[in-house]
Design goal:
binds pyridoxal-5'-phosphate, 2 domains, globular, four-stranded antiparallel beta sheet
């Protein structure tokens, strides 16, 4: 059986061009700054994001963690959206390794933070009862908020408040290129109102490993030390960087295809009785839906789908589909038929 895997865009495999680039990469010891392929990728990432410097890290999680560690002191507080990956899915690294407390604020439907709520969450300075607020973390696209996109204005509104309070802004831009493609806005513009950011090579861009942490030169110097401390200094990391360069050179524009297949899914889901889905929320390659509880339970439905060869992710009471390079219109149509069948099957049992 051919499995249609819609759990995440992290399941994408490297392209043939990436495999060739990996085989032919010029290498050196990156811990000493001597891997030319890593240096090339870091320069490319800095140029693309309009930041002074960039650092190759092993994962988005490591990039965000180092972003927090290098921007904060122990005992500080960071403001984070309640749907943020940093809060839900990064093993409480900020608390465990940085001694940093998380202050949650609400995410709006598509992920943006409300500037006045952020403003109210900032601790007054000089009161010994309060931890200093040192960082606001944004996420674009916002995975758990329907893969929603933050506009330049959404980010700037938070940046203005941060600046008034001498607080830094870190962006979890794991899927920032999806946002850039959706908004038809260069990434550099989208991240202009952030101090530091992480983006991932290993999601829709299809590289096998790696993320980039970007910021000013001093920040990246600090980040390099944190990376070493966390065991993330990698030697001939050009093997990884080579695929990353191909990802940045040739895989960004094709993310549009993933948005088109997500819309096809959304149309199809909306037409299946028993599926609860709001098509107006679909902006990028992530979409959510529910099963009408009078038909059956979500876990039974997801189990049934899996048996029929369609893998989806159930996330905090909702079902998430993520489109990616291995999902063409054909897979969408088969998956939609399978979803309708699985619903019937749980309803009659
Ligand atoms: C929004 C977001 N941030 C960060 C990450 C972490 O990336 P990684 O899996 O490379 O640690 C993910 C992973 O799915 C993500 O969706």
């Amino acid at each position: 059986m051919n499995v249609i895997d819609l759990r995440s865009d992290t399941v994408t495999l490297p392209t043939d061009e990436m495999r060739k680039a990996i085989a032919n990469a010029t290498l050196g010891d990156d811990v000493s700054g001597e891997d030319p392929t890593v240096n090339k990728l870091e320069k490319k990432a800095a140029d693309l994001t309009g930041k002074e410097a960039a650092l190759l890290v092993s994962s988005g999680t490591q990039g965000n963690l180092i972003g927090i560690l290098a921007n904060c002191q122990r005992g500080d507080e960071i403001i984070v959206g309640e749907n943020a990956h940093i809060f839900w899915n990064e093993s409480a690294g900020a608390a465990a390794l940085g001694g940093v407390q998380t202050h949650l604020v609400r995410n709006q439907l598509q992920g943006a933070l409300n500037p006045s709520e952020v403003s109210s969450a900032i601790r007054p300075k000089g009161n010994p009862h309060f931890p200093p607020t040192s960082l606001i973390c944004l996420e674009n696209t916002q995975n758990m908020s329907n893969g929603g996109v933050l506009t330049v204005d959404d980010t700037k509104a938070i940046w203005d408040i941060a600046n008034q309070n001498q607080i830094k802004v870190h962006l979890d831009g794991a899927r920032i290129f999806n946002a850039a493609v959706y908004l038809e806005t260069p990434v550099k513009e989208l991240v202009k109102y952030t101090d530091t950011l992480t983006f991932c090579l290993s999601k829709g861009l299809s590289a096998p490993v790696g993320s980039l942490l970007c910021g000013d030169g001093d920040f990246i110097t600090k980040a390099r030390r944190w990376r070493k401390m966390l065991g993330g200094g990698m030697r001939q990391a050009g093997i990884i960087a080579a695929a990353g360069i191909v990802a940045l050179d040739s895989m960004i524009e094709r993310l549009r295809d993933d948005h088109t297949t997500a819309l096809r899914f959304s149309d199809g889901l909306s037409a299946i009785p028993g599926i609860i889905h709001d098509p107006s929320t679909v902006q990028t390659n992530i979409l959510f839906f529910d099963v009408d509880p009078t038909i059956g339970t979500m876990s039974k439905f997801v189990g049934e789908l899996e048996k029929m060869g369609v893998r989806v992710h159930s996330v905090y009471g909702r079902i998430r589909l993520v489109t990616h390079r291995h999902i063409t219109q054909k897979e969408v149509d088969i998956a939609l038929e399978t979803i309708a069948k699985a619903l019937k099957s749980i309803a009659y049992n």
